[in-house]
């Protein structure tokens, strides 16, 4: 068994990394996908993040500024609310089960980004 990294690049969107398992029979099965979102003075970077349905996602949020109100991260559709200490990466894990767009927001629902699940 070997772990490989497949990278999917989509113009204007974050590079999402899919970690795949290659079985002895050569069948590729995605095990998890990762994304990294920085919260800086411009807001969420990137603000649109593509994910694949049915694959566990590990999304790292790292807040690098004190200039915005985004001191918490909320994923309402996935029952996630986490504090974002300055410069400390916070990994949120969830599995998107449905296609669609799913918001991530600050604690007051003012700053918004979205996961685009396909
Ligand atoms: Cu806010």
Rg is 15 Å
Second rung of CATH, namely the architecture: Sandwich
Could you tell me the CATH topology label: Immunoglobulin-like
Shape: globular
Terminal residue distance: 27 Å
The largest β sheet comes out as:
6 strands, mixed
- With helices defined by DSSP (H or I, 4 residues minimum), what is the helix count? 0
* CATH level 1 name: Mainly Beta
CATH superfamily: Cupredoxins -  blue copper proteins
- Oligomerization status of the protein chains: single chain
Helix content: under 10%
Number of domains: 1
Unreliable runs = 1-14
N-to-C series of helices and strands: EEEEEEEEEEE
What structural class do you assign from the helix and strand content?
mainly beta
% residues in beta strands: over 45%
What small molecules accompany the polymer chains?
copper (II) ion
Give the averaged pLDDT, no decimals.
85
Tell me the number of strands. 11
């Amino acid at each position: 068994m070997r772990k490989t990294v497949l990278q999917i690049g989509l113009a204007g969107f974050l590079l999402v990394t899919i970690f795949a398992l290659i079985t002895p029979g050569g069948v590729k099965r995605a095990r998890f996908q990762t994304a990294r979102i920085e919260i800086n003075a411009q807001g969420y970077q990137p603000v649109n993040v593509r994910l694949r349905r049915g694959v566990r996602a590990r999304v790292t949020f790292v807040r690098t500024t004190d200039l915005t109100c985004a001191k918490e991260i909320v994923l309402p559709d996935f029952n996630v609310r986490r504090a974002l200490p300055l410069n400390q990466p916070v990994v949120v894990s969830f599995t998107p089960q449905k296609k669609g767009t799913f918001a991530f927001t600050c604690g007051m629902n003012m700053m918004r980004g979205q996961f685009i699940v396909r």
